[in-house]
Amino acid sequence: METIPNLAGIICGTEHGGTTLAAQLLRQHPDLDTGFECGCLLYSSPQEFLQSNNPWSNHLLYGGWQILRSDVENCQTFTEFYAALAQHSPLVQNKAG
Question: Using one digit for the tens of pLDDT, what is the confidence trace for 33-53?
């Protein structure tokens, strides 16, 4: 099983289901940080998500995670996708683990 550096968990849920609140609560701990919602798990693959040109994929690339499309466009699995987010986003601290 592949591991994702510095990723302790993924919060999943439906819209208006409390995922933002959960992320905000976790962010209050001094040793934890949370990324921004990206909605990629609504799709069957990272490729489908990136091709959707929806507000989540645009936010992922041009706002929240501050990454380039080239950083994630070759990811075939969600494990690779989240590892690329952790590796390339300037928002993720302590990349060495």
Answer: 666 667 788 889 988 988 887
